[in-house]
Amino acid sequence: MKNIRIIPRLDIKGPNLVKGIHLEGLRVLGKPESFAKYYYQAGADELIYMDVVASLYGRNSLLPIIEKTAKEVFIPLTVGGGLRTINDINAVLRAGADKVSINTAAVKNPEFIRKAARKFGSSTIVVSIEAIKQPDGRYLAFTDNGREHTGLDVFEWAKRVFELGAGEILLTSVDKEGTGLGYDIELTQRVAESVTIPVIACGGGGRLEHIRQIIVDGKADAVAISSMIHYDVIANHSLEGDFSEEGNTEYLKSEQTFSRVTPVYLQDIKEFLTNNGVACRFPVGCEVFNG
Amino acid sequence: MVNQTTPKISIVDYGMGNILNVKRACAAAGMDSGVTSHKSEILESDALILPGVGAFGDAMYMLQKMDLIPVLIDFINSGKPLLGICLGMQLLMSMSFEFGEHKGLNIIPGSVVIFDKLRDKSGRNLKVPQVQWNNIYRFKNQTSQDPWKGTILEGIKDYEYMYFVHSFYIIPDDFSVCVSQTRYGNIEFCSGLQYNNIFACQFHPEKSGSAGLMIFCNFKKKVMQNLKERSNSFVRKT
Q: Helix A266-275 and helix A208-216: axis angle, to 10°?
């Protein structure tokens, strides 16, 4: 039995945790390190930090956030966004990341994947693929949060990054991202079945059933979750440090926009999955389910 | 000095993988540690941690290039505690079949082999590397005494989840060194071992949440105990 990993994805802009729709229209939700610690304690299997504006402006303000997080959070942390050189990767790993996610740099120079995998080990290198479905049904890879066209076919690119030594693929459906309409099952299943490395499905989760579907039908090895759990934190829990003043969270109450996303507590996701035949890990202090 | 109360714990840096998170986990368990690749510092340490991510052949090459192989063997022969993590566990074996055939440190007789033709119960191929949280458990045919008592797994419950990232696993010649087992698909392998004062695990305790941190706490106990024993023998001699 394989245990499916549930991975909170935290999009970061400057010092803040943000969330957008289709990776655009970002809103501030709070402090990423507070959310990270909370998810760690709630039983998250890993975390992803994605600097969503770094590529655009060519800057990276993540290091202090990573350092704070690494002192308190003892699960794997993947960091991505604007990492272009071996030195960039080194800096992020030294700050406390366990893996890095690369996209633009890999597209511009695929040999960068091989170089990075050789230097840091395949398991450290996650290649992020942002997919947009075309009117003709093809899936093309994009960079810079779905803004920059690469002309690469997603499935060919996925095989290529696997051959170049990527350890995992973070596969985001830009079409579904932030919509709460469900993950892209066709996309995920085709990529997951074409490579032997794990595929993390990302983008579109709005309900518990979506998560089950992307694992069972989409063959995802791991699922990245953001809106559902972030909204639950904002609606139902208070974190250390008051972020309500910085956080533009009022919009969450606008039922109209977000009615498609059901806020859910992280452990409830795992309980739901376990009850529906999907194996996952329960942290210390919880009942152990095993097959 | 052997009568110090703060043990000198060194994490061996041989250029393979991110070791600072091992240092952070030590700190969380109340252990001050240093990162080093100096021979004298390694030999003067009260305990060593041998981490590592990457390929076996590359790791042995680096250790050889840095002339650390005899140093590590000397340290281990001194009886002071060593904790091997992931690749650091595999390096302790006699040889590995990772992309060819490579000699290991040969501390523990046995070999390192790849996950081959892995299938789950339904016959579906399993992915390699194994990247997931998986269960560690005790040997079934044990006596009434808890086999984890007195090991670095003391206090951890059966089937606890630990974080694994690996394509290879160890097969010791003598399975009595194994303290924990783990199953991936149709393969059951040794995920934790203890041999004299050598402790090692295939998973990453530094990334396995509070259960993982408990291993660092247990290791600290081992280090303090060893320090006390050595200190006593020192006092008796003088």
A: 50
